[in-house]
Amino acid sequence: MALIVQKFGGTSVGTVERIQAVADKVKGFREQGHDIVVVVSAMSGETNRLIGLANEIQARPTPREMDVLVSTGEQVTIALLSMALNERGCPARSYTGGQVRIRTDSTHTKARIKKIDEEHMRSDLAEGRVVVVAGFQGMDEAGNITTLGRGGSDTTAVALAAALKADECQIYTDVDGVYTTDPRVVDNARRLPRITFEEMLEMASLGSKVLQIRSVEFAGKYNVPLRVLHSFQEGPGTLITFEEDNEMEDPLISGIAFNRDEAKLTVKGVPDIPGVASKILGPISRANIEVDMIIQNVSEDKTTDFTFTVHRNDFDHSLEVLEATAKELGATQVVGDNKIAKVSIVGVGMRSHAGVASAMFDALAREGINIQVISTSEIKVSVVIAEKYLELAVRALHSAFELDKITGEPE
Amino acid sequence: MALIVQKFGGTSVGTVERIQAVADKVKGFREQGHDIVVVVSAMSGETNRLIGLANEIQARPTPREMDVLVSTGEQVTIALLSMALNERGCPARSYTGGQVRIRTDSTHTKARIKKIDEEHMRSDLAEGRVVVVAGFQGMDEAGNITTLGRGGSDTTAVALAAALKADECQIYTDVDGVYTTDPRVVDNARRLPRITFEEMLEMASLGSKVLQIRSVEFAGKYNVPLRVLHSFQEGPGTLITFEEDNEMEDPLISGIAFNRDEAKLTVKGVPDIPGVASKILGPISRANIEVDMIIQNVSEDKTTDFTFTVHRNDFDHSLEVLEATAKELGATQVVGDNKIAKVSIVGVGMRSHAGVASAMFDALAREGINIQVISTSEIKVSVVIAEKYLELAVRALHSAFELDKITGEPE
């Protein structure tokens, strides 16, 4: 007898048949006596279809109207899923983001949730109904429809779970949990029975696309227990835990994340004086280019080399911007490389264990892989290497840290 | 400088190209200095697509969820049209039924409008924006999404025009006005420059499908001047006037309506005693069968014949119900005919002119057409004839009442 918020993404509700399968699944939970709030995305393909219509009309569609348009995708799904539940004798009622009063700010197409009024949901649950809520959307103070941005349905689910103080927020996806790394790259990648929020954040931002990073932050902030499961396969999935709850010894490394979408830029021979970093990154930021890693080494002489990485799509634009900046600063040279990849090892365990970084560098050296850039945080070590070595590096690290030996189920 | 409510139906907004053509048209009106509120339907085919999805899940979809589902159709159109207007430098803002506070009762799938709060629209208009409103939908007191039933976008337009005290409500369709009869049956059918509300009501209920009958009633009740026009052809269309405004002499007959969808049932030899009509029609009504014409002639002896018409789809069901009733009443016989058609002449002018009915009967007699049933009201005369004579009858009447000679433009 728990209160569970369940979120099913676009693929899980992509056809009428799948919506019916989700209804069967939800009904099963109801029959076990649980109270269920279901959050759904648009049927897969629908959001893109709608965006396509908009783009036929406006190259840069009016954000307010874009939200009115794409929010219909989830509205279709909530109605169909509620029908499927009612048809199964499992009373259900659908709500749009606005109807269930998911109040957001007014930043159309990427609004942030400010508060949720859970009264409607509570009274439906009390009357034995399943509450079906449209993910990804809300309403601002003035009554305008807003959306949370792509993948925002996860955030909706976590926010509802937080508002309702749910026992668990279950995110159903097309994978059966969070893996030690991408199984397409490493055959014996293992499902993690549990992972901490911090690790999950690092994994997500580094390219493991299982969960929206915002939803993980949200879950951490409001202590919402989050579980990733497969929509149509049985299994316990991966539980995302608060480190504080965790009395077991942490494994050294929980996973290996990687990202092919980066490019590296270096300004050489920059005068090593205060304020130079902001002089280099200021114009980049004003050009709306997002920067990932930033590395500046201690200087020899009176100059230094300044390196950062950007999304590969922004590579050419960044080079242009940098050339101008370099001239102003009297830097020697601008060099760049867009054939790179970033590989990171992530694990809360490394905080208390020395030598994790050097074990990583050793493993790469054994394969003859040159490390171009290193960056570290409390619970991760990232390196930039030539893209061609990516798979080799991930496999070597997976094996070196014995990730293929992880087993067990979440508590 | 007028305030105009314009309604574009599903065919008029059926593709991105058509939505753009509608935007061009609306922009033209803005440039003439008019304030414009646009009401749109779902893109043609969309509502049926959504209903199809629902029917895959539930044979009789939950009405509340059906409204959540189908109301997305118009929501897509308002967003796209607003984008198209913005793209043309014509500021626009979209509103769902709920957002513009079209408050309805809670009769899902066929709700009735109770009131409209026009403040949002007024302030947008004052700021120079075109207001784009989703037709066909509203919201009940509890915040549930409702729909007005098929064709309800006309009703939305008229209701908005009434609330805003608009100078005119223009209904854009795929015909360029209201015709003296169906041009597919009579080659030289003419567009009526104007028609009274009462005539329009009779024409609509008798099968001329240009406007939703509820919207015409609504327009009459709130004195909203209504005009039917073609979406993509220039022309003054047909103005639907209040008879009171009309100082010209009315034409005798404005149009000829007809209906092939009826079937006729007669109970013969019914005892002619008080209450017999309700004894016959009570069971029909309880079987949810709608009755159109009802005719009972003066009796000879102590029995009478009782005739009524129903929709052709209800013919078999009606016969069944009647057989049982006839037995109870001790009636002689039940006979029926589903190969009939109803033809009506409509015109406010006939109120003050004797002889219209007999002119009608003469015209039919000249063609050898037997009249099975006659029914009259203040402004119409309807006859039931064998279906095979329908086209012949309509042409003969069109010519007899000189409807091919109607010309002129609305004032």
From TrEMBL, chains A, B:
Catalytic activity: L-aspartate + ATP = 4-phospho-L-aspartate + ADP
UniProt EC number: 2.7.2.4
GO cellular component: cytosol
Residues given in the record as ATP binding sites: K7, F8, G9, G10, T173, D174, Y179, R184, K209, V210
Domain ACT positions: 265-339, 345-411
Single GO MF annotation: ATP binding
Any one of the GO BP annotations: lysine biosynthetic process via diaminopimelate
UniProt protein name: Aspartokinase
